[in-house]
Amino acid sequence: MLPEIATMPLQSAAPFDAPFAAELFLLARVVFGGVLAFTGINHFLDLEGTAGYAEMKGVPLPKLSVIGSGVLLVFGGLGVAVGALPAIAAGALALFLLVATPMMHDFWAVPEDQQESEMTSFLKNAGLFAAALGFLALASIEWPYALGGSVF
């Protein structure tokens, strides 16, 4: 017999009541969102190189895909960092990472001398995906130090 699993609504969990919890959450948002926004900006700074890499990986419409993913990374990253429409921002980033990670970092399908680098990138993106899911899970509550806006 399996134990019963009960969930607790986040609103009753008071996630930001602990000392410095709100400030640490802000720091996490700024670092996470800033890294992804910076990555998106790099899509534009090296558009041809990034599009060439995407084409090599078999991405359809590589230049348009790089532009679209760059926009998503910049606006999603900034959205999480400043707490603007967090469900949309975190959800878009999670979806991007879910699709892009196995497509761009397919360590199982590259030559052996590239496997370690691709696996590192894959695992790094998997961690970012988990963080995006964490922010998405918290999107239904009011974020401290945030611009706000909600779809819930």
Automatic annotation (TrEMBL):
Q: Which UniProt keywords apply?
A: Membrane, Transmembrane, Transmembrane helix
Q: Which InterPro entries match?
A: DoxX (IPR032808)
Kindly give the Pfam families that the UniProt entry links to this protein: DoxX
Principal cellular location given in the protein's record: membrane
Topology of the protein relative to the lipid bilayer: Multi-pass membrane protein
What residue intervals traverse the membrane? Answer: 20-45, 66-99, 126-147
- UniProt keyword Nucleus present: no
Q: Does the keyword Membrane apply?
A: yes
Intracellular or extracellular location(s): Membrane
One GO CC term, this protein = membrane
Protein name listed in UniProt: Uncharacterized membrane protein YphA, DoxX/SURF4 family
Origin organism is Halopenitus persicus
